[in-house]
Design a protein that fits this description.
It contains 9 helices and 7 strands. It is of the alpha/beta class. The chain has a single domain, classed as 3-Layer(aba) Sandwich (Rossmann fold). The structure holds acetoacetyl-coenzyme A. The site of acetoacetyl-coenzyme A has 19 residues, from helix 5, helix 7 and helix 8.
């Protein structure tokens, strides 16, 4: 039986590439999404991957959504916590709403999702959890106190959960993408991208979503069974942690 993988934010951007990569690697994939029905339907039509709409910032919604996935496809073996948002702005101009929404969607979501799959993984003695953090959780970034705090939190969360579950056959790892060519990065003011970001990427280019998807495929595979609590940096050399 094919293993079942859930990808949050799995219909657009890096998440879309991850969903497709896992499907190509033989997993049965459920792609969660939060709001963009049009993009999700287009994704479903072009890939044949099942889509499930719920808000990863809500514990109750994650519980209900995962129950539906498990009823449809079977127990979740692999979880990719990828869903994330940006609400960039200097702290001295940041609203409480823009702080809270990023922490809820990007950090609380890891608890909401993991808490609802971890008991099953422990009982079955197998699991792969891969949390998508960010270069900006490692190095900080002007305009991203909210995002960097959440993404740094993901790394600590990953290391703790890895220790709790290593002896149960469950690995928990983080990936820190650098600047990847997605809508999220295209939302950065062009002048800032050209003058303050691109010149500092030694590879001389943005990353491709598929380059992150290939890291996920490796960590999700049986070959990666001895790797847990680690952080893979995929950033073209922009930051070496
Ligand atoms: N490094 C150094 N200086 C920067 C900078 C940076 N990354 N970003 C902006 N600045 C500078 C600007 O050039 C400007 O300088 P001058 O006054 O000398 O011209 C000054 O900071 C203020 O910038 P703004 O006029 O743009 O001020 P603002 O308040 O309107 O916006 C900002 C500030 C929110 C930081 C905005 O510039 C911005 O959005 N920057 C990009 C932030 C960023 O990199 N976000 C990453 C999004 S992608 C992502 O998050 C995915 C991932 O995981 C990597």
């Amino acid at each position: 039986m094919a293993r079942v993988a859930v990808v949050t934010g799995g219909t657009r951007g890096i998440g879309e590439a991850i969903s497709v990569g896992l499907k190509e690697a033989g997993f049965t994939v459920a792609a969660n999404y939060g709001g963009n029905d049009e993009a999700a339907n287009k994704f479903k039509e072009s890939t044949g991957i099942s889509v499930y709409k719920w808000d990863v910032g809500s514990f109750a919604a994650c519980k209900e959504g995962l129950e539906k996935v498990e009823a449809d496809l079977g127990p979740v073996d692999v979880l990719i916590n990828n869903a994330g948002i940006t609400r960039d702005g200097m702290l001295h101009k940041m609203s409480e709403e823009n702080w809270r929404s990023v922490i809820t969607t990007n950090l609380d979501s890891a608890f909401n999702m993991c808490r609802n799959v971890i008991e099953g993984m422990r009982a079955r003695g197998f699991g792969r959890i891969i949390n998508i953090s960010s270069i900006n959780g490692q190095k900080g970034q002007m305009g991203q106190t909210n995002y960097s705090a959440a993404k740094a939190g993901i790394v600590g969360f990953t290391k703790s959960l890895a220790q709790e579950n290593a002896f149960k056959g469950i690995t928990v790892n983080a990936i820190c993408p650098g600047y990847i060519a997605t809508e999220m990065v295209k939302a950065v003011p062009e002048e800032v991208l050209k003058s303050k970001i691109l010149p500092f990427i030694p590879a001389g280019r943005l990353g491709e979503p598929e380059e992150i998807a290939r890291c996920v495929n490796f960590l999700a595979s049986d070959d990666a069974g001895f790797i847990t609590g680690s952080t893979i940096s995929a950033n073209g050399g922009q930051y070496m942690a």
